[in-house]
Design a protein that fits this description.
The protein has 557 residues and is of the alpha/beta class. The chain is built from 22 helices and 16 strands.
Length: 557
Amino acid sequence: MKRASFVLFFIVIVSTFPQASAEAPEIIIEVNPNLELFAVVYILAFNGSDPFIIAPQRYISDVLTYFDSYRDHPAVYLMRETIPKDLPHYMRDYSINGFAAKLTSTPYLGNMSENDPILSEFYRALASFAKESNFMEFYEAHRGEYEKVLEPAKRALTSELFQEFEELFGYQYKTFHIALSYSLRIHPGSRVIGEVAYYFGYVAFMPESYSTISYLFLATHEYSHTFINPLVSKYLSEFSELEYYLQEVRSEIAYATYDKHFDTNYVYLSENLVEALTNYLLLNFKHELVHDLPKYFVLRDHTLGYYLVRDLMGEFEIFESSKKTSETFEDYIPRLIEHMKEWATPENVSEYFEKRVPPSGFRLFDRGYLEGEVIIVYGAKNPDPNGIEYDKETAFMLKELIEEDDIWRLYNGKPKITVKAENELNEEDLKQNLVLIGGPAANGIVQNLTTLPLKFVFNGSWILEKNVTNFETFTSFAIEKEVYTELKERSKIIHGYPLGVVEVIRNPWNEENLLAIIAGVDRYSTRRLAKDFRAYPRSYGIESGNYTEVGFYVPSG
């Protein structure tokens, strides 16, 4: 059986650097015929049911109906053989990404000869399928749908954003070609051929404000790779002295074993620099669209192990404020490397890591995977037996949700999820990765945690109080109508209904592990929060009526 080869998430193939140009670059945004041809064959191969298929059900039905007589075509067979369902999710993801990188810059396969020597057996089969099925007739019949979903991308991805790359790096591409699939979740990537920079991925089926932001971040991120990666490669020997940053995150986060971005120092440092550049550009040049979301994304990156991003973002600010007329970011690289050596050394990089990586739902799940168990603990303190039983049911509901969480596709297995009452815990249980159900009135363990960042307090009615005094950093964002706004007021009392908080802290009985609290103002609010509990890369979230707040903190010491 043919197996998919390992391909990096982000494929960046760079030929010669284009020249500096005063002209605005051409921007092409499309649902790419080759990518959609690949997607249609994929839909047929798996009968429209697969985690990577994202098209609306109506469109999937159109595919299955229109191409019904081609279900046994060699291309469909080869698709199932090349990307079989029994491969781990991350390997299938890599494989789809690799095919997309090639297809994006290849002429439409339906116009190529199946005997063309540059085509492999699989691509010859795709070319044959395109011709025999008259794929372009189907494509043209759905062009209106494609154009509609691309409208936010065309409004957001304007030439002035791309021209900022020339300001920083001293050169530009003649064309930015954005090639997307309408129906297949293709892990985004980028590729450079001559003076054309390709970004490939998938369309955003979201409300317009979200889809605009999605297109902005993904395209800026991928195109940043085409400028950053060559520099990191050119100065790789100098950057190799900083490998201790990667070694530290590998020792702390199990996920790093399975994500290709943590494979080598080159890939890891490139990803940190790209995230820093992406958020720097959007915060400074698209703030009217993204507001404070880049600040949130920087801290989210830190929770996921890219803990250099905020300091690297500061380096772009320093460079821009001090650069001479003809200076480019390449000229700044030696200075950047010296600064990175000053941030931390091999001897104190663990301290640097701990001060920059907040506790989060993601870290709790990751530690649970590493330790092999997560214990969900419901309270036995509630004077109402019905309340205890309700929280017990919530705990078992949460157990099922965690066991089925998509995050485990990124790992080689999943931890054991156990449910216990608080009075069933022993000393060893307390040292595990814990999820506590209920607030101080329902759960005695929660009641006895006196230094929580967010704590329920009874003052005639239950309110939430923030405690920021024991934290190195504490950053909060209000979310209103899909807009993220950083809160300047750090201490705040929150009330309303339904009121609840999900917060993650280091486990006080074993600081290597983590502890999450899911607490509502009543049992119903607690369950509502539990239904949405995931491996979120943030420290806390608050819901109070129509008010939503999320944030990050790092404890002192």
